[in-house]
Amino acid sequence: MTTTTPEVGSNRWYLSAAPIVRALVHLCVPMAAAMIVGAVYNVINAGFIGSQHNTSFLAAITFGTPLLGLVMAIGGVFGVGGGALMSRLLGASENDAARAGEIKRVSSFALWGAIIVGVVFAAIGLLLLHPLVSVLGANTAAVPATTAYVAVMLAFVPVLAASFCLEQIVRSEGAARQAMIGLIASTVANVVFDVLFILVLHWGVAGAALSMGLANIVTIAYFVTWLTRYNDNVSLSPSWFSLSPAIMKPVFGVGSGELIQSAFLIVTSLVLNNLAANYGDGPLAAMGVAVRIAQVPEFLVMGVTIGVLPLLAYSYGKGDRTRLSAALRAAAITVGVITLFFAITAFLFREPIISAFTANRSVLAIGVIVLTAQLVAMIANGFTGLITSLFQATGKSVPSIVLSMAQGVVFIPVVIVGNLWFGLPGIIWSLTVSEVMVLLVGVVMWLAYRPSIARGLAEGSAERAEAVLEGAES
Q1: Which of 40, 38, 50, 68 is nearest to 204 (CA)?
Q2: In 3-54, which residue ranges form alpha helices assigned H by DSSP?
Q3: Which of 193, 263, 375, 394 has its CB surrounded by the most CB atoms within 10 Å?
């Protein structure tokens, strides 16, 4: 058996031996920054589309959003599942360098698996384009624009899936700064292409979709270049592609939770919007404002919960129980500080904050209540996300899938019953109630799986490496 010692200051050193606070800053701050930049771009993109003064364009973007979420989930199946497995194998290879060779098989399977499934999804979507547009809910006036937007997006599905997958592969190595650079480069390229295709050439929503696809090609080029030049562990060559059950089981076991969660998010959004629409435009507008306000702390929290995943996975693969516990504890404290600070601040200044977005008194009154409910839900969701990351990092596919399903399974009956019993207030507080219930489920499952995680950490390096590769649940 041979061992490897990461060089001080390297990306891998942050996963292996850096002080926990430095490791969290290295991994989480770039992730949060990239997500906030992406959120700012969404606002700019909406401005580009709005500048065309065509309401059907804005409607087309709205109708296409669920499809985009599903496409990104395809990349997530392979990226999140493959990235978590790669981080565990990196940790295991610190005690047994021979395990590093398995990482090449996992990375190749993740990338080419995402591309292949993306091609199949794109082909089916284009063949069924018109029925798909109808399912998305486009009305007569918005059908032409939605069709154009969805058609171009479908053509780029393999690109979008590969881009998201590569981001997870890069982050699995602890290269959070490189992942941030790739995402920001994509955002900048997207803005440039938007100016060209929307403002100059006036291609409308087709231009917006084309901009998104080409921008992700820029991201892919950056990630592939960096991985090829500076990383010896990862291989993107098809020659390493393998359909071995030892790879597919842990990748799909963890990654499928991403697909399930995205599917439920689409369903819950449709249910919530349809129920709220019965009470007029005011509640929908208030919910839209509250969601935008809550996005800032939510993105910061996601930066922590997603950013810490490679550190948890590496520590588990290495068998370093002390580091795993310290990382989890520090991440939980960080999530608590962020959520409580923003929740208290936003609650104290809720009326002036809502007023900055709307002058409508009825929307303002409802918005204050909606924002309060959203902030409480944000706190619960932050800790649920951290527990989910722990399960994904340790290869516990069953609880990670259960938590992904629980958010949809619990919310739908809660919002329906809330609407029937309490009307609009029941709808507003349904997300809060369901998020708290899901957090309780997560805590119970965490307590139930703690002995299993502890046994995995206590195993010898050879046995643990086998369990890491096989995705054992024991």
Answers
A1: 50
A2: 11-16, 20-50
A3: 394
